User: What shape does this take?
Amino acid sequence: MLAKRIIAVLTFEDGELTRTQNFLADYTYTKNFINNTLFDGIVLIDISKSDKKRKLFYKVVENFAKNCFVPICVGGKIKTISEVRKFQELGVDKILINSSFVKKEFLVKQITKIFGNQFLVIGLDLKKDKSKYQCYYERGKKKINKTLSEWVDKINKFCPGEVLVQCIDRDGTFRGYDLKILKVLKKKLSCPVIVCGGAGKWEHFVDAFKKSKVDAVCTNNIFHLTHQSILNAKEYCLKNSIEIRLEN
Amino acid sequence: MIIIVDYGISNIGSVKNALDFLKYKSKVSNSTKEIGKAKKIVIPGNGNFGEGMRLLKNLGFINVLNELVLEKKIPILGICLGYQLMFQKSEEDPNFNGLGWIKGKVLKFKKTKNHPVPHVGWNKISFKNMSLMKNIPNNARFYFDHSFFTVVNERNFNYGATNYIKNFQSIYERKNIFGCQPHLEKSQKFGLQMLKNFCDLC
Assistant: This one.
């Protein structure tokens, strides 16, 4: 049986590892801290404000790709096919697209046509506005002018390899994932669903797998990124009858 | 020298990184002359079947690959799309014929309530006596990422099976032809072992 996955999400600003928006940036950790062996995948996102130091991000990606033999997905600021190809040459397996899906539909079509649908991961950034969910782009700054249901229909038309759902208001809260909306999205999206934002304890992983049936969970909590803690997380999942990869 | 065939759309970087890590001498190449001198060939994956065949044709690789594989019989490993290209046909693009080294076709998964498509993640391979699987336990997990699966229409071949919606041949070997659906170069220890097994073949 296919195993559920636990994925590490790491964000970088000008080539340095950062924490997400609800935290101050923390530069004490470097690219070398992660023990990747038990992670089922890694997502690297460039959140730099300008493109000036983009080269440093390429270097980060290169370093990960040379030492991590699990799938690597790269996102943030991707605007051209030649960039996508460059990442692929460095050893990247998937490209995460969010803003370009709003602004550059043609690029997204090109990616699936050239590299295959499995190469495309669409980022779906959500915020709860009173009781309604609203989709965002540009790192949560701009609203997408469509209802969630319309946007999901559009994503399905592009047949991406996966969708990465980021619950923006849960990010850094440790309250757990937004299980209700995930359950709805899991039913509506035809491809595998990955969730990011809100995990505080291992129980939250199990809830996302069991109650919302998501295919993979992400953590960007720095304290989860050690071999021992990821081993504990996986053993906890296993104890709760979740199919998971333990051998490595 | 192991040549990693670069036909413009595949994850050459990942395969090269894995071979470097294992300390095997390899080279990424898109020159027919260089490919023609290879002692072993890897065709990496990622990409669309039609686009893959179109590029192999345009780059003039088909003749040289046919000669290496069918006449010189050098070992060749196809990974993911690289494996699927070895078949006769694929539902991904009926306008193109595949390389046709393996009799059979490539079909699209039909999603079910509990099985989204593509098939993404770590799944098991069950097998018996395969040279690619030396020092790997039965039912070890490998990383898969694909929407199409292979249906081999041959008698004398060895294979490993994976179940997702259907049972399909996730690894294949017959004489000098080796194929695998999972991304070995991204399947941690067991994937690297499988790649090593291919490199160590005589």
About this structure: The interface with chain B takes residues 1-5, 37, 40, 65-67, 69-72, 88-94, 112-119, 159, 161-162, 189-193, 213, 215-216, 245, 247-248 of chain A (CB under 8 Å). Residues 23-32 of chain A have pLDDT under 50 and may be disordered.
